[in-house]
Amino acid sequence: MSTLIEVKNLSKQFKDVHAVNGLSFSVQQGDIYGFLGQNGAGKSTSIRMLMGLIQPSGGEINMFGYRMPEHKKDVLRQIGAIIERPDLYKYLSAYDNLDMMARLSGLKPTRQLLMDQLDKVGLAARAHSKVKTFSQGMKQRLGIAIAMVHDPQLIILDEPTNGLDPQGIAEMRHMIINLRKEHQKTVIVSSHLLNEIEQVATRMIIIDKGRKVIEGSTSELFDPANTLVELQTNDADAAEKIGHSAWAARMKQEADSLLFTLHADDVPALAKDLVAMDIAIDNLSKRHSLESLFLTLTGK
Fold this sequence. Notes:
Layout: E1 3-14, E2 17-28, E3 32-36, H1 43-50, E4 58-63, E5 66-68, H2 72-76, E6 79-83, H3 94-104, H4 111-120, H5 136-148, E7 154-158, H6 166-181, E8 186-191, H7 194-200, E9 203-208, E10 211-217, H8 218-221, E11 227-232, H9 238-243, E12 251-253, E13 258-262, H10 267-276, E14 283-286, H11 289-298
Parallel strand pairs: 3-8, 3-9, 6-7, 7-8
Antiparallel strand pairs: 1-2, 1-4, 4-5, 9-10, 11-13, 11-14, 12-13
Helix pairs in contact: 5-6
Keywords: ATP-binding, Nucleotide-binding, Transport
Protein name: ATP-binding cassette domain-containing protein
Organism: Phnomibacter ginsenosidimutans
């Protein structure tokens, strides 16, 4: 698997503020690469430097074998992006928006090409509807069709679920996975929604105050041997019962739940023993491991 992006010691300073400070990371071909951090962590500034929208104060950016920003045109031919919300003409149809944006990119698109792109994002049936009638989720999907119309290698999505309802978020999640699985695209997804990134990313970086906190594949970051499992029960004697069992050393009590640190493969055995101890299980589930990791590393 080849490296599409290599960033070394990237920095951006606005007067006295170090928005990005010595950031290094790499993105491999075929990644869904999660770019994570709280609002103000430096995610959008980093992405704007990748896109050549703002100049770095220092460091190196190499993409597709080219150095940015010296070879900006060569790089941008390989990228499709949605930065914040897609810029659409609300009184034009989805088809006309896509056609116009394709022509601005230097393409001479056929009707079949445009309809195929709309079909890929589930908008073929609304091709001739005006964008002003679209939900925010539909606008985001049209934005992805525009980003893909010139068949780039890399898709960059900056906070793609902002403003979406739960259904829209689920649709966006499915679309991001499909960009990699069905269309063989590499995807960078910037977000502060940890749970969403955990469900789609193959590799990720967490940044805080412009600096890298950690980077790696999901398998590297989440050790199955240290899975955090939460038990919620209305059994007042649950902790005492478990305290006399083989699970006692792995248990920690919180205000309204019991936590166990164990291997992911041991969860069924724990559930079986809880039932044998006649403990009522209201809920037994894994804590969001990415959230726990983020909070631990950033001290939030």
